[in-house]
From TrEMBL:
It comes from Limnobacter parvus. Keywords: Acyltransferase, Glycerol metabolism, Lipid biosynthesis, Lipid metabolism, Transferase. Pfam families: WS_DGAT_C, WS_DGAT_cat. The keyword Acyltransferase applies. This is diacylglycerol O-acyltransferase. Residues 308-452 form the O-acyltransferase WSD1 C-terminal domain. It is an enzyme of class 2 (transferase). Belongs to the long-chain O-acyltransferase family.
Length: 461
């Protein structure tokens, strides 16, 4: 058995019916010119059903001991409980696909089994085939998911007979079986090691927390505090219903804006989101007077491990109180750089402990729901790096890779994107009841990019 880290266990503690804690991915496949879609789906589904023995981490289920969660191998794995083939009703538009994805994503995973599910979905009117997969966040983070995706695809359409994600030998991890005595010894050893690491990080964490509190008191304009986020419709309680929306944007367009404004690609992405949220909330007559704050995960992963979570969190001022797009993106960039400079002086453990301390107020609310007015941020915006070249799965071209993330009570909208083959693929998830007509945000994101393109063109002239 292997104990979950405190960060990974947090995702289990946070889970409730209205906030299942899994992340997902929607992949669109385009069969080649010589491939009949029905024949392709029949063969792929039949082949997938032959892979009844998963590799790590897909063969792991939870076990509780001494008040902690552990991963252990599932000796009674049943593929039929994890892999399902579905067909869309005619006409099979993208709209119907996203409706189905929304319903699948709203259902929690069964903790009595390995925490993942995979679906093949056909019936799309354009002949494409969809793969939707969801995995519990306690098992993997977004960066690990993207790495697993790349390893489960091929670089050429000529490569066939590729195993499905859960049985791909390239993802095989080392899992050591242990009896109860060994598990107890391992637990005590891990607790001792963790305690030592935490104690060594304490002086630096105390110093940085004190520095942050001092900066808040003197109102540093580029520092985003954990008590700065305004109340908004984004931060109401959520239901179990979900709405998923997705769209791609050319990486070339976004990079051209970044170059023209002498900023980064991530600055442009956050500015697009800030502009879209300003327009969406303005349309609802619900735009706060103070600027919205985004929580932006930053990967600390330095290896190719598949399991666990290795991320820090920084706060970005989205400047939604600002009408001018150039002023907005420059405000965003300064707030992000402020956090990055702080993290540069800390190691990974110190960063994680600093973030945990500073986010304690918001974390307490998420765990208990007792203080809904205490929040450190209004929305989560994640950017996960992905493959730069086109991938293939058993002869079909991977035409799109869209992330489908999770929601928390008081966080009714999530925007996650990943790069793929010269595009940025945006996946938006919202509580259907809390965020009406959420798909309008896709048009507002395009409007935000157009604003920045015009600003960049003006600056070049």
């Amino acid at each position: 058995m292997k104990a979950l880290t405190p960060n990974d266990q947090l995702f289990l503690w946070l889970e409730r019916r209205n906030q299942p804690m899994h992340v997902g991915g929607l992949v669109l496949l385009k069969p080649g010119k010589g491939q009949n879609t029905a024949d392709y789906v029949h063969k792929v589904v039949a082949d997938m059903r032959t892979f009844t023995q998963p590799v790590a981490p897909f063969n792991l289920r939870l076990k509780s001991r001494l008040g902690m969660w552990f991963w252990m191998e599932d000796d009674e794995f049943d593929l039929e409980a994890h892999f399902i083939h579905l067909s869309l009703p005619k006409p099979g538009r993208i709209r119907e696909l996203l409706e189905l994805t929304s319903k699948l994503h709203a259902s929690p995973l069964d903790r009595g089994k390995p925490l993942w599910e995979a679906y093949v979905i056909d019936g799309l009117e354009d002949g494409r085939v969809a793969l939707y997969t969801k995995v519990h966040h306690a098992l993997v983070d977004g960066v690990a998911c993207m790495k697993m995706l790349q390893r489960s695809m091929a670089d050429s359409p000529e490569i066939m007979d590729i195993p499905p994600l859960w049985a791909n030998p390239n993802l095989r991890g080392s899992v050591q079986r242990s009896d109860a005595a060994e598990g107890l010894v391992t637990l005590l050893s891990q607790v001792a090691s963790t305690a030592k690491t935490q104690l060594l990080s304490l002086p630096k964490v105390v110093k940085e927390v004190g520095r942050s509190l001092w900066q808040t008191s003197v109102a540093d304009p580029d520092f985003v505090s954990v008590i700065q986020a305004p109340r908004s419709v984004l931060n109401r309680r959520i239901t179990a219903s979900r709405r998923v929306a997705a769209q791609s944007w050319s990486m070339e367009r976004i990079k051209a804006c970044a170059t023209g404004l002498n900023l980064t690609l991530n600055d442009v992405v956050l500015a697009m989101c800030g502009s879209a949220l300003r327009s969406y909330l303005g349309e609802l007559n619900a735009l706060p007077a103070r600027p919205l704050v985004a929580m932006v995960p930053v990967s600390l992963r330095k290896d190719d491990t598949a399991t666990g979570n290795h991320v820090a969190l920084l706060l970005a001022n989205l400047a939604t109180d600002t009408e001018d797009p150039v002023e907005r993106i420059e405000t965003i960039a300064r707030s992000v750089n402020h956090s990055k400079e702080r993290f540069a002086s800390m190691n990974q453990t110190e960063i994680m402990n600093y973030v945990t301390t500073m986010m304690g107020i918001s974390g307490f609310n998420m765990l208990t729901g007792l203080a809904p007015k205490l929040q450190a941020f209004n929305i989560v915006i994640s950017n996960v790096p992905g493959p730069k070249h086109t991938l293939y799965f058993n002869g079909a071209e991977v035409d799109g890779v869209y992330p489908v993330s999770l929601l928390l009570d008081g966080q009714a909208l999530n925007i996650t994107l990943n790069s793929y083959a010269g595009k940025l693929e945006f996946g938006l998830v919202a509580c259907r009841r809390t965020m009406p007509s959420m798909q309008r945000l896709l048009q507002f994101l395009e409007d935000g990019l157009l604003e920045l393109e015009q600003a960049a063109a003006t600056r070049r002239r």
